[in-house]
């Protein structure tokens, strides 16, 4: 591998790579991100290798395993270039058909295409609504490159921003450009990256550290993982540029142990960057030295907090400390340490290459650029979506997400993970950016976006997040440790039908104390899911507490299943399938559910044939008079 000693070397190397590649040569790309990998993408890739070989096409067709495309629920995804024909849900048994039909006969395999709501089949990936309305400036190269190939990254212009920064710009100019772009941190708080860089740069001391936060502890969030495992060089390039601006010679990537593919691809990327002279001493002949160590985190949510993360890197327990002095001034080994999120770093090469003015042209007044969200929950198209700041929630849920399954009503969207809040349907036209989300009591967080339909119980959702945080609280400070525990106790009893008058007020008071007095942002923001849900859905709390009903029919102690005697055909299906034998009634006799034995698992409702529709779920405990057993069915 050549060592690149100048911008000219880098450009020459890029031209050599491009000269070896024919843009018109068919290339089968197979998504090998974690989602598709779990669905068997490696077997699909192997099937392509074998089938292409069998058909004598080895010299005529390229195969590339890429990073995550974001539409993981439809994996394995295979896209054939240069036409960009996109096949979804590909299995190894589909491969012979794809090779003979598409690669040999130049036709599409209809049944593997995306079908939209009107039944139209869409051939090209970029025309699928899920992708069409996105702006994938950060995440877009994931689907084009093999993350284990530095050549793929360089072929697309990779490391040219680094060359520009190191060889054409002073550290001060780099810093100024990032400040002018108003790049705000994508890991939670949205703090301006340039200002934090400047604080670390100006802090006393020669030794400074820069760190990538790839802890990604929010439940359901996987943007950072997909970016790091799919395009590790983009994060690395941003980190080296940041180190240059700050005056740091040692970097760390803190990545959770549960992300093995990210660790593997990152380690390969680091090795390749070193071999090419893009890391180590005298990077690109600029005289600037910098290297990176990977620190594998043990997977505790609280260790994603800056002071906790730095303690973990030092080999101590990953718990937060009071931040009388910020980590930007006194972090790892009490040296100035600048921490940014994976996505924040991946934005940096774009800003340097295209300029702050270009970057400022995307987004809203206070939030520039794009944001990657993990769009999940009750929405037709789930996955990773990158949108310009300011796109409305409605556009994200309906245009990109394709709306709510089974024509149900949207109830709320939860953003910001456990520190965020619920946003009701009435605020769906809210432009999504850091400030607008905060104004309505939620936050951007790292990009979790959970869509909830009418069947979601808001109290149960708040309970879920508090349960998560109570488990993850490090326990060091009392407001967070005890506050969360007490909040959980109250929410549990509300969901069990034992809520008391005054519980809502008590939750609000606890939340205020936790906000004011907790040691770190875990406790300081932990009440957000509870307080925002009380703000917008107080009636639902009251129904649980005062009427002992769960309107959405979720909280098990507050619901009951019954069999409508007029509809029951005594078919025995529910009776046979009930896992606890709670249903009585023989052949020809109307079936009856024993409310004492019923565990509310819902199996009877699921298995009752649609044409009978005899099982009903009621949002209250006992709303129907019990039926005598032994009555003959009609
Ligand atoms: C409990 C807790 C967990 C956090 N977890 C993460 C995380 O997983 N990833 C992340 O980037 N930031 C996380 N943060 C935010 C970091 O403390 C820090 O603000 C962020 O990494 C800074 O990067 P940014 O300015 O680029 O967003 C967490 C904060 C708290 C309080
Ligand atoms: S892993 Fe294949 S689309 Fe996400």
Characteristic terms for this protein:
single chain, 634 residues, alpha/beta, 5-stranded mixed beta sheet, 4-stranded mixed beta sheet, 24 helices, 39% helix, 14% strand, binds flavin mononucleotide, binds FE2/S2 (inorganic) cluster
Bound molecules: flavin mononucleotide, FE2/S2 (inorganic) cluster
Task: Give the helix tally.
Answer: 24
In percent, how helical is the residue content? 25-40%
Quote the average pLDDT. Answer: 93
> How large a portion of the residues is in β-strands, by DSSP E?
5-15%
Report the major sheet: 5 strands, mixed
Identify low-pLDDT runs.
Answer: none
Q: Please report the distance between the alpha carbons of the first and last residues.
A: 81 Å
Adjacency order of strands in the biggest sheet: 12-11-15-13-14
- State the total count of DSSP E strands: 19
The helix/strand class is alpha/beta
The whole-angstrom Rg is 27 Å
Global geometry: globular
